[in-house]
């Protein structure tokens, strides 16, 4: 595995059918993408493998024990390395326990293309973080191509 001096995160694209679970991040100015919709996941602990980190983060943030996640891609920009996993959300959203963030919700493909969505907890429209939107659009294109084959 490639190692870098940049912070590394493991994040998950969770889906039910054609809808995608996202988290509305807290309005804390010191975190990445405050007040934006984003994926669940987080930083790797020292010595932790991304494969283990993504499962740990999901359990910590929403109490979800994913049955199976697969690596979709590794995305590196000037500030961070994102290990992007994907897998099904096999429980109703109502069973998830949000312990981090302001809100959570299933997004439609139209929501993703629009790039923003209303949060009932924040009581306003909030944007999807640009890198998260880019990753989702890439994932949707990948799935479209796979289904056409």
UniProtKB/TrEMBL annotation:
**Which Pfam families does the record cross-reference, listed alphabetically?**
NUDIX (PF00293)
Q: Does the keyword Hydrolase apply?
A: yes
Q: Where is the Nudix hydrolase domain?
A: 4-141
Q: Which InterPro entries match?
A: Nudix_hydrolase, NUDIX_hydrolase-like_dom_sf, NUDIX_hydrolase_CS, NUDIX_hydrolase_dom
Q: Which cofactor does it need?
A: Mg(2+)
Keyword Coiled coil belongs to the record: no
Q: Which UniProt keywords apply?
A: Hydrolase
Coiled-coil intervals: none
Q: Which CDD domains match?
A: NUDIX_Hydrolase (cd18882)
Which PANTHER family does this UniProt record tie to the protein?
A: GDP-MANNOSE MANNOSYL HYDROLASE, MUTT_NUDIX FAMILY PROTEIN
The record's comment on protein family reads: Belongs to the Nudix hydrolase family.
Q: What is this protein called?
A: NUDIX domain-containing protein
